[in-house]
Amino acid sequence: MTSLLGIVTIALMPSKLVRGVNKMKKKEILQRSRNENINEYEEKILNDSHRFGILIISIISIIFMIIKAIHSDIQGLENGIPSFDYAAILMGYVSYQFIYKFIKTRENNSLIAGIAFGLICIVFIFLYINNL
User: Fold this and answer.
1) What is the distance between the terminal CA atoms of the chain, rounded to a whole angstrom?
2) Model confidence pLDDT, tens digit, residues 60-88
């Protein structure tokens, strides 16, 4: 009888051990999942802040372009004050965002957009320098 009890005890022990290990794995998995959710949330906040930042930069640049146009019209300047500097800043920023996205994701569309905006930025810089 004792040997039978010993066999039953030994047979049951591993299953309790496995259950304990499963509980530990479940806790680890839940903790990792929580951490990943926090990281995803932080990443979403960062992406939203970048979008809002480019919106603010765009609005400020457009306001400065309008002010320059009005000011040059008031002063009666024929060629006006060039506003290509703000356009170059915007295009440079957008170009950088797309190139950075390409480096991280290897999406060809991002590379093409990054190069295109970079070239537009160079054109605006050239136009700005030419009109000084």
Assistant:
1) 103
2) 888 888 888 787 777 776 666 777 888 89
Tell me the C-alpha distance between 27 and 20, whole Å: 11
Predicted TM-score (pTM) of the model is 0.57
Rounded distance between C-alpha atoms, residue 40 and residue 34, angstroms: 10
Q: What is the C-alpha separation between 121 and 88, in angstroms, rounded?
A: 5
Rounded Cα–Cα distance for residues 131 and 38 (Å):
50
Q: Is 114 exposed, middle or buried (0-12, 13-18, 19+ CB in 10 A)?
A: buried
pLDDT digits (tens, 9 = 90+) for 16-38: 545 555 666 777 776 776 666 66
Question: What is the Cα–Cα distance from 55 to 92, expressed in whole angstroms?
Answer: 14
Residue 64 carries which side chain, given as an amino acid letter? F
Q: What angle do CA 65, 71, 73 make, to 5 degrees?
A: 105
Three-state SS at 43: helix
